[in-house]
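Feature request disguised as a bug: please show the residue count (283) next to SDR family NAD(P)-dependent oxidoreductase in the output. Example input:
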Amino acid sequence: MHRYNHIEKLLFCSTLLNEKKLHRKLEGKTILITGASSGIGKELAFVLKDINAHLILVARREEQLLLIKKEIEQSSAKVSVFSADLREIAEMDNLLHFLHRQPDGIDIIVSNAGLSINRSIEKSLERYHDYTRTMAINYFAPVQLLLSTIPLLEKNKGQIINVSTINALLLPIPFWAAYQASKSAFDTWFRSAAPELNGKGISTTSIYLPLVKTPMIEPTAAYRNTPAMSPVHVANIIAKSMYTKNKIYKPWWLFIGQIGSLIGRRILEKILPRLLLKRGLNK
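Example output, currently without the count:
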């Protein structure tokens, strides 16, 4: 478990979870969590383990899902696992068929599965597939999932929770073109669709996160000593949104970055190319 240092405690204010409200709200509900084999998705499943609810855990790694299921079902929650690569048409179709066969429908969808790529444009010239596979999991997969399940959520007056990134609200930075474009695409789609979904009685929540200490960031050496949120903390934030139905969560300091992105754009656009060239990072 990631323990916060003094800086992280300041940046990531603690979240108080009302267990009674959470249990009362989720009793008998069916909750779908994508990207559930590790990181945020896994920790969220464990936060919900003592509730009499049905958790549908989706990820590629079936072995990990089965281990989580075995541990959680020693508590109160019922767990179904579904191994699927949501980029694959056949596997997505199988998941959607499974969801539509649920006797009680779906009450909450937590869209958490994602792929991160940190690579310069110079190193991407012959790697167009980086962009297609990132868009496939970060944009096309959640759109397809939701388009199919909106009728189920409407019937149950359900909720969609999108686990997004603060980068979708800030000035884009070098080396993250594939990731930031794909996450921003779904964030824009979700915010655009939200009024229509709300009109159908479906609640929508966007969780804007900074760096989170998950396996996804491990390949990036620069992040090993960078302040990052604990996935357990994020799981509590998501769980809290299930009974508060708040539309947005974002770190308290994000507005500073948004102001900086607005007024400092021209300056950064002039400085960054020179800085990258000077440090030899444009390769």
